[in-house]
Amino acid sequence: MVDQVNPGNEAVNKPEAAVPLPEKVQAAPYKRRESRRPFSKREVIPSEFVEKVIAINRVTKVTKGGKKMSFTALVVVGDGKGRVGYSLEKSNEVANSIKKALIAAKRNMIRVPLSGSTIPHQINGVCGAAVVMLKPALDGTGVIAAGPVRAVCDAVGIRNILTKCHRSNNPINVVKAVIDGLSRLKTVEAEILEPAKVEG
Fold it and tell me: Rg (Cα) of the chain, in Å, rounded?
């Protein structure tokens, strides 16, 4: 089509030369850094203690500035040979609360007298409203106990025992009641030696 205003101007009538679009630049293949150290599995060192996490609770503290949420961890630690300890610690994260509880439980361990794979005699442990009956059992009976009591028995190294929780199932009070009962156990040898120490 000829321009009516400038019929002699052929340059205006010619379409502009199409500008070639740049070819799509292909991304270079991803190369892993050679400076990275080769992946190696970390060696897990087995612990000499039996560690049991019994309960983890979320605690909310209401303050003037708002609500502060934290976590509490109830942990039992034992060596399976008559030593046991427990702790209840709090932190902003679950992992930190468990770590703090394990360290505190290892510091506060008590020695429990055992008679083979069971306890020397029957005893009742008390803490608050919780009452836990601990009764010796024959070989092959196993640990007849609920969650918190079973965790403590496994940590101590007791393999045969009969237990019963009365009045309260609060895991914190139940664990404290079991530790109270185990701490008051006595053997015949201890009963014979104690009067001799007092007389001497």
Answer: 36
Supply the pLDDT for residue 200. Answer: 45
What architecture is the 113-186 domain classified under in CATH? 2-Layer Sandwich (3.30)
Buried b / exposed e along 32-63 (16+ C-beta atoms within 10 A): eeeeeeeeeeeeeeeeebbbbebbeeeeeeee
Domain boundaries, the chain: 50-110, 113-186
Tell the CATH topology of 50-110: Double Stranded RNA Binding Domain (3.30.160)
Nearest Cα residue to 179 out of 128, 106, 127: 127
Return the ∠ at Cα 174 (arms to 172 and 177), rounded to 5°.
110
Residues 106, 111, 117, 123, CA torsion sign: negative
**Strand partners of residue 166:** 131
Could you tell me which of 78, 54, 60 has the C-alpha nearest to residue 172? 54
For residue 82, give Cα distances in angstroms to 16, 60, 103. 95, 37, 18
- Judging by DSSP bridges, how do beta strands 123-127 and 143-144 pair with one another? unpaired
Copy the structure tokens of residue 187.
């053997």
Q: How far apart are CA 7 and CA 54, in angstroms?
A: 97
Q: Tell me the per-residue pLDDT of 12-48, one tens digit each, with 9 for 90 and over.
A: 555 555 556 556 555 556 555 555 555 555 555 567 8
